[in-house]
Amino acid sequence: MIDLSHPLHEAMPVYPGDPVVEISDVDKAEWSTSKDRHVNLGRMTFGLHSGTHMDAPFHFLNDGATIDQISVSQCAGDACAVRVQGERIGRKDLIQSETIIRQTKRVILNTGWFHRWGDNDYFTAHPVLTKEAAEFLRDSGAILVGIDTPSVDHSPFEAHLVLLGAGIVIVENLTNLDALPPSPFEFAALPLAIKGRDASPVRAVAWR
């Protein structure tokens, strides 16, 4: 089983303007006495789009499904990987994979950008998905699109609107994609059932 997730920790990079990750101790086991048993207990605060995470339609659409309303079956199952290059991922970069996209319905886009995690321009210079590419994925029956960049696009977020508007969930900040097995493979990225919210960190994995 291949781990495709960035670990959450205090020093990790976050999208510009998002809350930083903070982790603190509430209690520690070394304070234990025979009369008063203590345990290690932590507190964590973070933005819901920290690290490897899933966008729900509600992220952009007020009437869209929230992260707790996403079906678990949508988040796990057959998947394929498509290796793409360049600053703008267009329909032409995906059309050769149309058959397997239609078969698996979960598409992982490997741009190679995960190798730039932690670089100063990671959040600003990443490849983007064009509106036409997003429409192609929608029309090919995709139900989940994963990518190794912090976002599928930049403002005005046309790809987000196409995908989320069709109920397609987006998994961003994937890593270790070069270790994926040949397509098709099994993939899972399960979000926390955070009631009424727009996103959740996930532990994304793949296996044969």
Which terms summarize this structure?
single chain; 208 residues; alpha/beta; Glucose Oxidase, domain 1; 2 domains; 7-stranded mixed barrel; two-stranded antiparallel sheet; 4 helices; 12 strands; 27% strand; globular
Question: Strands, helices and their partners?
Answer:
Layout: E1 2-3, E2 22-27, E3 41-45, E4 53-55, H1 72-75, E5 76-83, E6 88-89, H2 98-104, E7 106-110, E8 128-129, H3 131-139, E9 144-147, H4 158-165, E10 169-172, E11 185-191, E12 199-207
Parallel strand pairs: 5-7, 6-8, 7-9, 9-10
Antiparallel strand pairs: 1-12, 2-3, 4-10, 4-12, 5-11, 11-12
Helix pairs in contact: 3-4
Strand arrangement, major sheet: 4-10-9-7-5-11-12
Count of DSSP-assigned helices: 4
What's the rounded overall pLDDT mean?
97
Note the run of SSEs as H and E. Answer: EEEEHEEHEEHEHEEE
Estimated structural class: alpha/beta
Distance between the termini: 8 Å
Number of domains: 2
CATH architecture of the largest domain: 3-Layer(bba) Sandwich
Classified in CATH, the superfamily of the largest domain is Putative cyclase
Radius of gyration: 18 Å
State the name of the first-level CATH class of the largest domain.
Alpha Beta
Strand content: 25-35%
Sheet having the most strands:
7 strands, mixed, barrel
The coarse overall form would be globular
Question: And the CATH topology of the largest domain?
Answer: Glucose Oxidase, domain 1
- Helix % is 10-25%
The strand count comes to 12
Low-pLDDT runs: none
